[in-house]
Design a protein that fits this description.
Helix content: over 70%
Structural class: mainly alpha
Strand content: under 5%
Shape: globular
Low-confidence stretches: 1-15, 20-31
Mean pLDDT: 82
Length: 203
């Protein structure tokens, strides 16, 4: 339905990257005012900066190479900026670079869920859905208190038309969010979207 498409569209346009325990994917980098400004321009969440300004800020962050988690996050945001500009080939190039960065993070930190969850988000954008689902599953096993793998899994299953599976994943994400001391509105918006699409009643 139109309502379901609008709700899910808002979710899928948001950054889908999980955050490490320190908060921002850039960790301690945000303590530097210049770096924090580059981070905001690179993300460009309010679309107030031009493509050129956003990419230049992202490239400055890459030049500092603060780790593979950071590099993967920067490549992700570069890809999103090119996607905004409908330069899809360049977006895919940077999504592949992000996937490579998160793969290296996984090799170095195989017991941490963030690398798997973030690589899954990238693979889903590239249309590599089976690989993405496998990564979301691994992330969920590694950290049973992380909601982001379940939210990502729900988004992916929704795209594939598996509304029952998506609903179950969103419900799991919402329960984890509530158990961990707070709920995220996006989980509940996603639950509404999937139920609207499958024409089932809301709880």
């Amino acid at each position: 339905t139109i309502i379901a498409a609008a709700l899910l569209g808002a979710l899928l346009n948001a950054s889908a990257l999980a955050q490490p325990a320190g908060g921002s994917p850039f960790g301690s980098m945000v303590g530097n005012a210049n770096t924090a400004g580059d981070w905001l321009r690179c993300m460009n969440e309010e679309r107030r900066y031009s493509l050129e300004v956003a990419i230049e800020s992202c490239e400055r962050l890459l030049a500092e190479h603060r780790g593979y988690s950071v590099d993967g996050a920067v490549y992700w945001h570069i890809a999103m900026r090119y996607q905004d500009a409908e330069q899809f080939d360049r977006a895919n190039e940077n999504l592949n670079l992000a996937a490579e960065s998160f793969a290296e993070l996984i090799r170095r930190e195989p017991r941490e869920y963030v690398g798997y969850s973030n690589r899954a988000s990238v693979l889903a954008r590239l249309g590599r859905y089976d690989e993405a689902l496998a990564d979301y599953d691994r992330a969920a096993v590694l950290d049973s208190h992380a909601a982001s793998p379940w939210l990502g899994r729900g988004n992916l299953l929704f795209r594939r038309g598996d509304y029952e599976g998506a609903s179950a994943a969103y419900d799991r994400a919402a329960r984890i969010g509530a158990y961990m001391g707070g709920t995220n509105a996006s989980y509940h918006a996603a639950r509404c979207a999937v139920r609207a699409a499958s024409r089932t009643d809301l709880e």
